[in-house]
Amino acid sequence: MVDVLVIGGGNSALCAAIMAREAGASVLLLESAPKEWRGGNSVHTRNLRCMHEGPQDVLLGTYSEDEYWQDLYKVTAGKTDEHLARLAIRESSTCRAWMMKHGVRFQAPLSGTLHLSRTNAFFMGGGKALVNAYYRSAEKLGVEIRYNSPVESLELKDGDFVAAHTQTGKIEAKTCVVASGGFESNLEWLREAWGQNERGEYPSDNFLIRGTQFNKGVLLKNLLDQGVDSIGEPTQAHMVAIDARAPLYDGGICTRIDCVSLGIVVNRDGERFYDEGEDFWPKRYAIWGRLVAKQPGQVAYSVIDSKALGRFMPPVFPGNKADTLEELAKQMNVPVETFLQTIRDYNQACQAGKFDHTTLDDCHTLGLQPAKTHWALRIDEGPFYAYMVKPGVTFTYLGLKTDQNASVFFDGKRSTNLFVSGEMMAGNILGQGYTAGIGMAIGTAFGRIAGTQAAHVALDQVTHSVEKSYS
Ligand SMILES: Cc1cc2nc3c(=O)[nH]c(=O)nc-3n(C[C@H](O)[C@H](O)[C@H](O)COP(=O)(O)OP(=O)(O)OC[C@H]3O[C@@H](n4cnc5c(N)ncnc54)[C@H](O)[C@@H]3O)c2cc1C
Prior knowledge:
With 471 residues, the protein is of the alpha/beta class. It has helices at 11-22, 65-75, 82-92, 95-101, 126-141, 187-194, 218-225, 281-284, 288-293, 325-332, 336-349, 438-458, 466-469, and strands spanning 2-7, 27-30, 47-49, 106-107, 120-123, 144-146, 151-157, 160-166, 169-178, 208-209, 230-231, 237-243, 264-267, 300-304, 320-322, 384-396, 399-400, 407-410, 413-420. It has two domains: 2-182 and 399-469, 3-Layer(bba) Sandwich (FAD/NAD(P)-binding domain); 238-392, Flavocytochrome C3, Chain A, domain 1 (Alpha-Beta Complex), CATH 3.90.700.10. The chain is 28% helix and 20% strand. It binds flavin-adenine dinucleotide.
């Protein structure tokens, strides 16, 4: 019987598998995807948000634990477990040496509207290269990897793991780490969670999934059915406004529309509905999918004028382009007069200030509802551009309740040998909102903890309190 069974094949599962193997356990990793699609959402990532007390190779300045915590507290509006959050934050300051040991390389930050050069370390070659490096390292260490191996259910006894059931049979192990993602790719579950709105629409029918098609939440559902303690709400998720022409799955990073804070966003009725300049884009981009999900038809348009060009990462598909706003409205298929009135109201409300996209500048609107609180420049220089966006689900937050040992709980009782990491428990730290790069920080921290704990239990070693080993 194998010591540690790891279920999932993304960043968090790989961190768990490698740590468990390094601790001396035999490890089997089951990835539902075929080899060419391995790696889950992690292959789409670009960076990791890192605490650092001073400049470190690719990271500039300092980003203290408290600043990181305050950023997280703000974006989640306090819906976060401070203890677990601080654990992930602290881990992010030390995990990179271990990552590099396993072949991950970092590069200097990209420029653009994400304002991330101080806070986030970028992966050379992106998440795909990171995942490939971890697979290489795991194989070298002797982790057994099986692709095309979706686990259908877990067999439990009194909250303890007994075996995983797959189409080809039952796999027993002394301990198990579940790191099989959220349920974002399960369209039926999304429909059930979001239901029907007051307009009679099923909003999720218009959602696109930014990442893997393999995160169907099968084990999440199975464990919920078996009475696991859960965390988070089913409609809470990292959701980005992405190009409406993106594919249903795996469109990845290049379908994001990053000019929201440089212009205005209108719905299909031609009306604004939220403050586009509320905060820096990395702290706000992940709420726009949700905002668009609440609009009629679940579509919206990010509108800019020529002044914005060159200030954001250009989208992969060209947008609508017109010399006049009237012509643009016709191309967008929104009511022309309402749209023009929205632009007139906005332009009149813009106060003169000193535009600076790298700070929370003083360019704001006055007397407009909703206000635009920063980077509010008049939309008056043609040609004008519009990008139609739809909600793009990155990952869902409903997950398993956990603690500093990455343990799974049933009725408040800790399982002795079942652990969880990654998206499947990110909702403990992300009750809502998001700040760029924290998904990988949580997945790396808790993957490493889960793997270590699973190995210790399997090898019958005394489990340390994570407080001691990871402080
Ligand atoms: C487009 C995009 C860009 C992103 N960019 C960033 C970024 O730059 N920085 C950042 O921090 N975060 C980013 N994220 C979020 C990040 O991807 C996740 O937070 C992180 O990858 C989660 O890792 P994970 O291992 O938990 O899940 P995943 O990487 O999704 O892995 C889950 C794995 O479980 C497997 N699986 C699912 N069900 C089963 C089953 N029943 N049996 C066996 N295996 C199963 C899947 O095939 C997959 O391999 C991005 C996400 C997307 C989609």
